[in-house]
């Protein structure tokens, strides 16, 4: 018998890698992609980047403009995330097994979160562009809906994980639902929730740049404009500033996390 | 089954013909009946899965019974509306194996949680406690030997200290009964001894009835006035510790190999 299991494992593995190889070959064939040329061009890209893609003196004169756009992008991300967090907290209270009042509402809340979470950010931006065209609001709402789904899920898991035992104890003392939430659930889960919020702000600042390309706003749009008009030095300055910002934000949120957790 | 009445007063708690079916296969509780008087210290023993935790939670209706009745101070607990149920629960303390504290809050904050059931929703929600409540909490904390940890966060305490916070939280309710679900199962022998002795002391001094789920038969023998043996959801023994012979213990634990060896109290 054990010998059969080993043989079956080996066959399964062969089948899996065979299928993967066929899929890869098929994709390359259909799209006329030349993998050899693809890899050799990476080297050329580096050479080109080193000779064109760095900020020069002229690019530095654009620094204030770019900084302003970057500030817009950051503020929009922070606003979208914090507003989403407030709604996520309410949705999580309804959806969590520990704090829900009613199983049906709980299921509805979790279903909403699940649907929101499973629509990719870029799809949100495209859908919302139909309604609000290219605008700051479109970017804001795309980040808001994406974050709402993710944060609701994260908050529900946090509540269920860290407060279920204390909630049981307070229910047994006859405490009211509001008391339980304010005295047990929030004190236990708030630090973890803030940690999720910081993570989401971090992610959203990265994604906001990409969404800006689509919605024509913020620092993503600056990049698009400079790049398409062959102002590569300016475009590289945009990239550099984004990278520095993201590193700073990440360091800041790590610092806050160390303090609160 | 021996049904004895050594009650030092009218029954405080009456459990009659309680059934609990979680999913319709085998009932977790099967026709459980007993009553408990004021100040009694009752140990509930039995193999794991026997229904001890379920039984305890049916008393304060953390779990709804499928059939039968629980009467507390003459009031049928299953008939109560939400508000009256909270009132009953505020007179019943509960202590847990995993302490069930809000670990990030301080000792005093956790102890004061025991008052929430007796407060208005608003002052409870805002965590506003009267001077009297704070003084009472402080006294209990000192009595339990935690005076120097009053303002310490509970996640900094040892298991034994956490359980003492749990006891203080139950006592500050000024309860008639305390339900203890395996209060010493996560503790080392020394901490277990301290906890059991403190429970015994408060039961005596404050005339609080205790129902304590235990899996150590020797602990039950040493501290309790009365032992309930539960097996497969049924009470198979109800008597004084002195009546619990090795044969009865074997009966309670079935023919399981995992039946604990008994060290008689020295
Ligand atoms: N929430 C639940 N849902 C379904 N079955 C449960 C639940 N809780 C306990 N049970 C079952 O009820 C029986 C008694 O469990 P429990 O009261 O926890 O026993 P004990 O505390 O004596 O170990 C067990 O068979 C257990 O699997
Ligand atoms: Mg149990």
Walkthrough of the structure:
Chain A is mainly α and 261 residues long. Chain A has helices at 2-31, 35-52, 57-60, 63-95, 103-118, 121-132, 136-173, 177-215, 218-228, 232-260. Chain A has two domains: 2-52, no CATH class; 57-260, MetI-like (MetI-like fold, Orthogonal Bundle), CATH 1.10.3720.10. In chain A, helix 4 runs antiparallel to helix 8. The model of chain A has no long low-confidence stretch (mean pLDDT 92). With 266 residues, chain B is α/β, with parallel strands linked by helices. Chain B folds into two domains: 6-91 and 177-266, 3-Layer(aba) Sandwich (Rossmann fold), CATH 3.40.50.300; 99-174, no CATH class. Chain B has nine helices and ten strands. In chain B, the strands form two sheets. In chain B, strands 6-7-8-3-9-10 form a six-stranded mixed sheet, with helices on both faces. Mean pLDDT of chain B is 91; it is low at 1-9. The A-B interface holds A 163, 165-166, 168-176, 178-184, 187-188, 191 and B 60, 62, 85-90, 92-94, 96, 98-105, 113-114, 116-119, 121, 124-127, 166, 169, 173, 179. The complex binds adenosine-5'-diphosphate and magnesium ion. Residues 52-53, 182 of chain B line the site of magnesium ion (MG).
